[in-house]
Design goal:
It is built from ten helices and eight strands. It has helices at 3-10, 21-26, 31-40, 55-71, 82-87, 102-109, 122-128, 155-167, 184-189, 207-218, and strands at residues 15-20, 45-49, 75-79, 92-95, 114-119, 135-138, 173-176, 194-197.
Length: 226
């Protein structure tokens, strides 16, 4: 893991709060207002995701999210777009199996940025371990209606095995997919360093309070050391 990855790991709170543009719009939340609510609730690691946003708007919004988060001493990872992450001065970029290869992303963002990679099977986890990444994602854990991943739910047993494999490489594991306040602690107990959540953070209409509840509950869970 590079020095930037270790720095981000220090900020790798057990809640990886995803600011998803489409989910925010459906719930009637302006993106910056939602990001601010997450930050007030105690989130210190945000991922900004905007699958259908035009590039110029994506860059402007990502830059604003980064500025807001940095004011709260929080970090921002941009989903998919390494170019946007670099131009917006984000702290990292997260890519999937169908995005740019992690090695190409590393070339674009440099060694001072964090790079994360989604996986959906143990074969993909093993391949990811050979890539220049700072953390590995696994999911969907319980299945999700927020986004169509095209993959079946992996369950807690796969989280446990993926965590065992990533731990030998000193890489944090981020679990995503259908995770709720009620199930989050079980995912951390299975070995994930962090849970990435989209829908449940908006489920009560009070994302600030929901994030606070996640942070408080997860702080009581044992987290693996990497």
């Amino acid at each position: 893991m590079n020095s930037a990855g270790r720095t981000l790991r220090a900020e790798f709170a057990s809640l990886h709060a995803i600011v998803d543009a489409e989910t925010a719009a459906r719930a009637g939340w302006p993106i910056l207002d939602l990001a601010a609510a997450f930050l007030r609730g105690g989130a210190r690691l945000l991922q900004f995701r905007a699958k259908s946003m035009p590039g110029d708007a994506f860059l402007a919004t990502a830059s604003a999210v980064v500025q807001l988060a940095h004011h709260h001493q929080a970090r921002v990872i941009v989903n998919d777009r390494a170019d946007i992450a670099r131009l917006a001065s984000a702290d990292g970029v997260h890519v999937g199996q169908d995005d740019l290869p992690a090695a190409a992303v590393r070339t674009l963002v440099g060694r001072q940025s964090c790079v994360g990679l989604s996986t959906h099977s143990l074969v993909q986890v093993d391949r990811a371990l050979a890539e220049p990444v700072d953390y590995i994602g696994i999911g969907p854990v319980f299945g999700t209606t927020t986004k169509d991943t095209g993959y079946e739910k992996v369950g807690l047993d796969m989280v446990r095995e993926a965590a065992r494999r990533t731990r030998t490489h000193a890489l944090p594991l981020v679990a995503i997919g259908g995770i709720t306040l009620e199930t989050a602690a079980s995912v951390i107990d299975a070995g994930a360093a962090s849970v990435a959540v989209i829908g449940d953070l908006l489920s009560t209409g009070d994302p600030e309070a929901r994030v606070r509840a996640f942070v408080e509950r997860l702080s009581r869970s044992e987290r693996p050391r990497v």
